[in-house]
Structures are given as structure tokens and as C-alpha cells.
Fold this sequence. Notes:
Structural class: mainly alpha
Oligomer: single chain
Mean pLDDT: 81
Radius of gyration: 21 Å
Helix content: over 70%
Low-confidence stretches: 1-7, 215-226, 412-420
Distance between the termini: 28 Å
Amino acid sequence: MKREKRIKCSYHWLILAACCCVTFTGIGLTINCLGLFFGPVAKELGVGRGKVATFSTIVNLVTGFTGPFISTLLKKFHLRAIMSAGCIMVAVGFGILSMADNVYIFYAMAPFIGVGATLLGTVVTFTVLNNWFKTRYGTVTGIMMAFGGVCGVVMSPAINWVIERYSWRAAFLFVGLIGAVVALPGILFVLKISPEENNLQPYGESEFEAKKEESPNAQSENESSQYHLLSASVILVCLMTFSETATHGINSHLPDYAMELELGSSVGALLISACMVGNISAKLLSGILSDWIGSMKACLLMYGVSTAGLALLFISPTQHIYYPMVGALLFGASFTINSLGTAQVIKRTFPERAFTRVYAYATAFGYVGIALLTPVFGYIYDCTMSYRKAFFVAIFLKALSVSCIALLKRKSILAEISIN
């Protein structure tokens, strides 16, 4: 009986491992590593970096606008079919990009890849983990989201090597193949939408129910909270996510910023790796802190760290590697706020039945933010021949996002609830 219980319990961690692999492909490869291609593609096709970055804009816009439909798809179709389709679309899309001879093919393929990224995105994976884990949710989501950063650390140097040794076309084929190999096994053989499909209970169900009984007033308040689209809580969470996620477009331009600082393309790849190391560390730390001291305090800490990173990037002198490396490392904390931080805030603010819907709308606003600002940062460089003004804009957006949090706290919309 004990062995059977261990086997049943271990399946929860297999679910987490499969979600990590999906995040590796759906976020790490599809979003975090795209910046490596902007410079080489722009050079060969004879266009500005802003025009190439528009491809990323379209991907993010499509991903954002299709995200709210995920909850409906999950009710009508099997999880395996949804995520398999997403994985195939991303892999095939990258394969087609390897044959592109003009920037308009990139624009044409962007919606295709964007839909694929949605089907592999955080709306799906957070919903799965929300169903499988009632306790340690912050920790497991932190581990999962960290794998988007793991991909950046591991794959950025590899992709840059393929680009330099062969071409960006070979690198797109490489990315599509790796993405499919990493994500598909877990999708096909492990993932289930809920533990009931395997006759299991969510992890920590008994502990969660016991704490509900200990705090009936807080639970009833959470269950009765309003979450229609025009409620103040939803609007402020969406605006917070929009302005914060918009700053993430900076990551795509770090390789080109290294060239501006006369550090070379290899250092550019290292900047992305440093950013992803910060991403991994911050997500693991933020997940634990959210369970321990509360989601708001954890989010504010990540805001401070990532803003300090932007400031270091802003003041980095030419031909000095340490300032931009440390700045990129600290800036990596930004990726915690829009994914893990937003999910924790929503989980603690809204009833459980509303999680997928509210998170989908907040994520949509986030994708719109990064979609709009990623090419803007590129155009700022095209117009000024420097990314420093782009860093200043990003700092302003972070200040706007923190202002939303201040309004949320002032209105007492968010309650600080520590599950663990």
C-alpha cells in the first residue's frame, strides 16, 4: 500500500516535469530566444531591426488575443490534442521561417506560430498545475516557469553557435526540432488536465481543506469576490501586467546592445544567458516567497531587482562587460512578475473557478504590451543609434506598473494570504 501511495503521489511531480518541458518550448524557445535572430535576419534581408522585431510583435499579439479562448477549448477538446497541435504548429512555423527570403514571410507565419504558442502557453500550464496542486502552488509554478529561463541559458549559446557556424536558417530548423523533441513526450504520455482522470486527488488536498476550515471568513470572501471584466480588480491587474510585460521586449534586443557596446555577438548571447539565469533564480525564489510572505511583497521585491538591472544597463560604458552582464542578470527578475507574480495575485484574489478566465485576460494584456513595445525599442535604436532611451522607457513602464499595485493595495482589493 505504501509503495502504491508513493507511485500515485509521484505522478503529481511527473505532471510538473511535463509542464516544465512544455514551458521550455512554449516560452523559452518561442519567446526568450527570438532576439538572437533579429540582427542576422535584418542584415541578410536588408531591413531594419525594428521591421524584423515586428514579427515578434505579431506573435505576441496573436498569442494575447487568442489566450482568452483557451478556457473554452479546454472544455471542448482533450488536453493532449490541444497541446500537440500547438507543439506541431511552432515546430513547423520555425521550419518555414528557415526558408524565408523576405520579411513578409515572417509576418505571414507569425499568426501561425502565435496560435501554437498560445496552445503551449501559461494559460494552459497554470490551469493544469492549479488543478493538480492545492499546496506548494507558488513553488511548483516557480519551478515550471524557471524552465523558460533554463532554455535561454542552455539554448542561447547553442543557437548563436549554429548561426555563426552555419546560418540563421539552420538555427531556425534547430530550434523547431529541439522544441518538438523536448515537449511532445510529456504531452503525449504524461499530461492530464486534472488528477481525477487518474483517480487521484490534488497534491495537498487534505491540508488545503483543513486550512479552509480554519479560515472560513477569508475563504468565503474570496469565493464571493467579483471578477467580471469591468471590475476594478481585473482592470488593475490587467494594466499592471500590460505595463510590466511591455518591458520584456528589452530581452530581445540585448544581443544588439552588446554590439552597440562593442562587445561582440558572443557576449550578446551571454547577456541573454545571464538574463535567463536571473529569470530562473527569481522565479524559484519568488515562488517560495509568495507562499511564505505573500505574493505582493514578493512581486515588489522583483520590481526593485529588475529596475536596478535596467539602471545598470542604462549606464553601461562601452567595452566594459561587467555592467551589462550584472544588469542583464538582475533584469531577468522581470519575467517573474508577469507570469508567476500575476498568477499568485489572481489565485489569492479571485475564486478558484475564475482562475483560468482572469489569468487569460491578464495574460492577453501582457502579450499586447510586449507586442507593442518590442518593435518600439528596435525603432528607438534605428532612430537614435542607441538603446539607452529604450531602457529609460522601460523604467517608466515599471513605475506605472508599481503604481497599479499601489492602487490595488489602497483600494484593499488584494488580500495578503499566505497558504503555507
